[in-house]
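Researcher: Here's my situation. A collaborator sent me these components and asked whether they could plausibly form a single complex. I don't have experimental data yet, so a predicted model of the whole assembly would be a useful starting point for our discussion.
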Amino acid sequence: MTTTLTKPAADAGSPPPKRVRRPKSARAGGQMHAGPIAYVILALFTIGSLLPLVWTAIAASRDNQRLAQTPPPFWFGGNLFHNLDIAWNDANLGEAFINTTFVAGVSALTIVFLSTIAGFAFAKLRFRGRGAMMLIVIGTMMVPPQLSVIPLYMMVAKLDWTDQLQAVILPSLVSAFGVFFMRQYLIQALPDEIIEAARVDGASSWRVVWHVVFPAARPAMAVLGMLMFVQTWNDFLWPFLVLTQNGNPTVQVAVAQLGRGYTPDQSLIMAGALLGTLPLLIVFAIFGKQIVGGIMQGAVKG
Amino acid sequence: MATRHDTAALPLEEGGAAPGRPPADSVPDDKEQRRRARLSRRWQRDMRWSPYAFVSPFFLLFLAFGLFPLVYTGWASLHTVELTDPTDMQWAGMRNYTRIFDDDFFWNAAKNTLTIGIISTVPQLAMAMGLAHILNYKLRASTFYRVVMLAPYATSIAAASLVFVLLFGRDYGMINWALHFVGVDAIDWQNDKWPSQIAVSSIVIWRWTGYNALIYLAAMQAIPQDLYESAALDGASRWKQFLHVTLPSLRPTILFTVVVSTIGASQVFGEPLLFDANKGASGGAEHQFQTLGLYLYEQGWVNMHLGRASAIAWTMFLILIVIGIVNYVISRRLRASS
């Protein structure tokens, strides 16, 4: 960024300033400074993105009566911890948190490991059928998971896995996106020479994976792990079908059930929604930059 | 091409290990030679089979939890199967499919899926494009904006839907309260057809606009700068540059997001399910925002007809394949024309 800034200034030495200015204004696409209008639009989008989240917290800090009055509340009340406490106990959120962390953690770690070795094979190894197999991987990205829900449910029912966490974990491990993501990364990030050098030293393929591929892939593995964690954490349809409120709910299942009462207490529902969202928002606040980078990286190469 | 190279390379490696060929420096004794042969055999086996070992876990999982269920859904759709006893399957032929064609609720759900899909996808991608264009400027605190735009993506469908139900409340919701300042009477966002579809779509829009904006932004940053410079030298205004440089360069990315959004829109489920928690799977009192995904759930898990639900799933799949083919043809045309 700084180089593009100094470049016109360096050229400005000999030619008249008029000629310098023209190419500078030409940089509309990439490097123009944003004007006030751009900042206004960004501010609107920022408010739009954050308002529902902030308002969740505001509503969770009030009570049901206050939410049934006509200017809706715009600032926090004193009921937040009271509501969080009740929602936590009513929705069995403690257990749900442990379950979801376990499910999302195991899924993310397994997907990252399997995607990295498969992505490495597709990126760097030669084998018969590689092209066709890669096409299948890309093709599976196009098939919506909803279509497989019925037989999966039959399988789970037959195996007596209803309300058991492996019923959620196992189907979530199929991640064509992960394989594709790691392949795209490794094509660029892992030079062939390093693999060759390890081979010359007599390293087997597994040794190459452990000592060359994993260290080189670490940044992409971290990003993929976070993306998969978020995805599994927020997964709704499948856990909703195989897990119930009373047996091993995930956070999403537990939160969704909060709204099902006869006279739903809105401030409690909001407290539950807040509790279900907060852990991921904290993760985003800490690793937001890396996650943004990962999504953008996957996008360009995809 | 890769496979050809592979078959050509193998005999070469074998030749290198063959005993007939004299080694360059010294003649190794018998033992040494056998050791080398063994090592090279192991080496070859490793080179040959480990790629398959690396990709096989994915394909095994895909077979078990992707392909098999997909095919089995097709098989189940030709049977009468009830949720109460999923193992008891009675052959029904095409009856589940013919039934769909006469089923007003199916067509209602199909229409709703289409309209909700359009209402949610078109503004979402258009806004994402505009947002990406702005984010591509030199900005102060640019990382901050990017992370903020992604915050809705981190919010689950369940949490987002529950909040939007309150925001869209008819009597006390913030949106109707804001609208009354501009003279709009209270809108019944839950029970009127179009308002309810707009409200459900807005949840989708809110969650995905920032994500798509980041994808567009990444593609924009990959456009070579000199394209803009030469366009500007030709006297193109900024708007013209956007039309004639940015948009054409983003064509593959736009197609990618359209495909992904279409697939996403075809399966909208959690948002309409939770938007009227009391009505649940019916998608509103008059099914006014029941999507295909929700109808599939209602048939399978509320009415307990798994066979019929499977037929709905496969019809959705076929529709998606048709959309995919149309999309492919269009993208080829576009590529050919450019």
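Model: Some features of this prediction you could bring to your collaborator: Residues 223 and 294 of chain A are 6 Å apart (CA to CA). Residues 91-258 of chain A form a domain with the MetI-like fold fold (CATH 1.10.3720.10).
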